[in-house]
Amino acid sequence: MTTNEQAPLDAAQLVSGLRATLRQGRTRPAKWRLEQIHGIQKLVEENEDEICAALHSDEHKPRHEAFISEVHAVISSCKLTTKNLHKWMAPEKRSVNLAVWPASASVVPEPLGVALVISPWNFPFLLALDPVIGAIAAGCTVCIKTSEVAPATSALIARLIPKYLDTDAIQVVEGGVPEVTALLEQRWDKIFYTGNAKVGRIIMGAAAKHLTPVTLELGGKCPLFIDDTVDFQVASRRLLVGKFGSNNGQACIAPDYILVEEHLAPKLIKQLKSTIVEFYGEDPSQSKDLSRIVSKNHFQRLSGLLDDPSTADKIVHGGERDEKTLYIAPTLVENPPLDSPIMSEEIFGPLLPIITVKDFDAAIDLINDKPKPLAVYLFSTNKNYVKRFTEETSSGALVTNDCILQFVVPDLPFGGVGESGTGAYHGKASFDSFSHRKSVLLKNMGGDVSARYPPFTPVKQGLI
Ligand code: NAD
């Protein structure tokens, strides 16, 4: 039984109900779409305290962080969509050439259809609802599968959605692997998945059966290179708030490891240590501004990375842990071997390796030796480095002299490439992600030219 004591899932019935609503055309008019998006905004505004409490219960998320990164982010997305929906829905005129004249051509966005949104635990409110705003904006019906790893938030979403939204068109399913498996057996018109790449492969495999288009928002190891053209104090603040201030490192775009030239490492590490103390005090376990690790499994996974013989003696700051409260201190690790577990898999927690490299070229090589990340970060004012980073590395996003802010620029599509994902969303990209752009050519019965039709006599071919 799921957290909200839902009836057992009948996935086939759920999809056929959503499909029936779609066929009625109820989700097509802009009016319905705007009402539902307004419903989401109202849901968030009227339940802000409960949402923050659920996020605190699931991962000890500090209220300020929960408000900014989940509550406020969903409201902003609703407002942006409301403001632009008519513009996004409008057909785009295209020119026609003489061969088809007289005619008019346009690209008309149409809803892909019945959509499935599968969400993860790390931003369990935002990452469940933000894609749904895109699906509704596009005119789809949608099923949201919340994450079982964030049970309080999942239960809250399941309870609130029916109070504010049209449940014939928007359904919530709680649960874990069995529920996803049952849902994936159905035919969907779009699957939007956020989570790890291993499950991403399962999703893509299931989608292939019906040639269902997918967006896969995955993760990976986001590298950060820093040189001495920047102020280390400002840089440390920005990169550490991107790491520890973002769900304590449990964020897909948190910097995963730092690359720095060897001679700069002592100065950088000294500054990073001092900034950690500035942010979280001498004993970060007492700070109110630090999330906890989401579950015992993830606590043990992260402990395993630190305790690995390759890494255990490389900790230069932090390392303290308490399994009972799922606390792991902000931790710096200097030069773990490149083939160690901490440098081989996505860390997704408050551990930050600092890897020394010979020079900028070596940093680029190291980045390119790994799968394409969701983001690369460059702290440098060297214009040539910026150009080379842009041209010589491939990633979902590139940011200079800051971290994670790409997430809050709605005009920038958010998504990965290769191992870090496929497709993108945010702003108009969310609308596009759930739309098919249909080419429409409208001809009338005039302008018939006999040269188009056989028999192709020499006269018609222009030979005589
Ligand atoms: P998770 O464990 O909550 O799983 C994500 C979803 O997949 C859940 O709904 C879960 O029920 C389902 N799932 C899990 N195992 C499954 C299986 N075997 N078969 C079918 N469905 C299954 O979250 P997670 O994967 O631990 O999330 C963390 C990962 O997500 C990290 O890799 C992170 O980088 C990535 N992430 C990416 C983004 C992004 O926007 N690109 C955002 C957040 C997280």
UniProtKB/TrEMBL annotation:
<dbReference type="GO" id="GO:0006081">
    <property type="term" value="P:aldehyde metabolic process"/>
</dbReference>
<feature type="domain" description="Aldehyde dehydrogenase">
    <location>
        <begin position="14"/>
        <end position="440"/>
    </location>
</feature>
<dbReference type="Pfam" id="PF00171">
    <property type="entry name" value="Aldedh"/>
</dbReference>
<dbReference type="InterPro" id="IPR015590">
    <property type="entry name" value="Aldehyde_DH_dom"/>
</dbReference>
<keyword id="KW-0520">NAD</keyword>
<feature type="active site">
    <location>
        <position position="217"/>
    </location>
</feature>
<dbReference type="InterPro" id="IPR012394">
    <property type="entry name" value="Aldehyde_DH_NAD(P)"/>
</dbReference>
<keyword id="KW-0560">Oxidoreductase</keyword>
<dbReference type="GO" id="GO:0004029">
    <property type="term" value="F:aldehyde dehydrogenase (NAD+) activity"/>
</dbReference>
<dbReference type="GO" id="GO:0005737">
    <property type="term" value="C:cytoplasm"/>
</dbReference>
<dbReference type="InterPro" id="IPR016162">
    <property type="entry name" value="Ald_DH_N"/>
</dbReference>
<comment type="similarity">
    <text>Belongs to the aldehyde dehydrogenase family.</text>
</comment>
<dbReference type="InterPro" id="IPR016163">
    <property type="entry name" value="Ald_DH_C"/>
</dbReference>
<protein>
    <recommendedName>
        <fullName>Aldehyde dehydrogenase</fullName>
    </recommendedName>
</protein>
<dbReference type="InterPro" id="IPR016161">
    <property type="entry name" value="Ald_DH/histidinol_DH"/>
</dbReference>
<feature type="active site">
    <location>
        <position position="252"/>
    </location>
</feature>
